[in-house]
Specification:
Length: about 220
């Protein structure tokens, strides 16, 4: 299905019935990374899985920025009249979730983010170098986004007032100290560093998140 929001078309799928939960993928992916998770979540929830702008079957755009992505999801929630959904965001999806909770505190009931950073300095040195190298050769808007955004301050994080779970793999390419600082600045948030997991190992085509999400909810 598609919906017109914020001047573009967003592609999305709905699965199941129950209290609403929105799933947001990371950079260079689409909603299909959550197929295994959706199968389990949809037995208890109405699951909305979205392709973000410039990804999957949503509108292609020349430039990407997180404020537009946040406004897309805010418009999506309002257009479909989704009442107080839980939002789970992976990587770039987590950044969108943070911005949404900061700027539209009335829209969400709970927030779960994994592998999210608040600025490019949160990435470890080697992954950051590889992104720079890829951008040098491709001039990809997706790579440029990772190199120049987001820019979320600790003061902004302290505006988040909904229950929040912050996740990261022990072997994530986000610096662990960065993830800890992120969680420390969200009032009352819960932090889980997952042993043996990388940035995406427990997310893409995995059901490992199901018990974590269920426990938090």
């Amino acid at each position: 299905m598609t919906i017109n929001v914020n001047g573009i078309e967003l592609f999305y799928k709905i699965h199941g019935q129950g209290s609403p939960i929105i799933l947001l993928h990371g950079n260079g992916e689409d909603h299909t990374i959550f197929r295994a998770l959706i199968k389990k979540l949809s037995t208890e929830h109405t699951v909305y899985a979205i392709d973000s702008r410039g990804h999957g079957r949503s509108s292609k755009v020349k430039h990407l920025n997180f404020i537009d992505k946040m406004n897309d999801v805010a418009g999506f929630i309002k257009e479909l009249n989704i009442q107080k959904p839980v939002l789970y965001g992976f990587s770039d999806g987590g950044i969108i979730g943070l911005l949404l909770a900061i700027n539209h505190p009335e829209l969400l009931s709970k927030l779960i983010v994994s592998g999210a950073n608040t600025n490019p300095g949160g990435l470890k040195r080697i992954p950051l170098f590889l992104i720079k190298l890829t951008y040098f050769f491709t001039r990809s808007s997706k790579m440029k986004l990772m190199l120049t955004q987001p820019d979320i301050s600790n003061e902004e994080l302290r505006k988040i007032q909904i229950p929040t779970l912050v996740l990261a793999g022990k072997n994530d390419f986000i610096k662990e100290a960065h993830t800890i600082t992120l969680a420390e600045n969200i009032p009352g948030s819960t932090l889980k560093i997952l042993p043996g997991e990388t940035h995406a190992s427990y997310v893409i085509n995995s059901t490992k998140l199901y018990d974590i999400i269920k426990g938090f909810l």
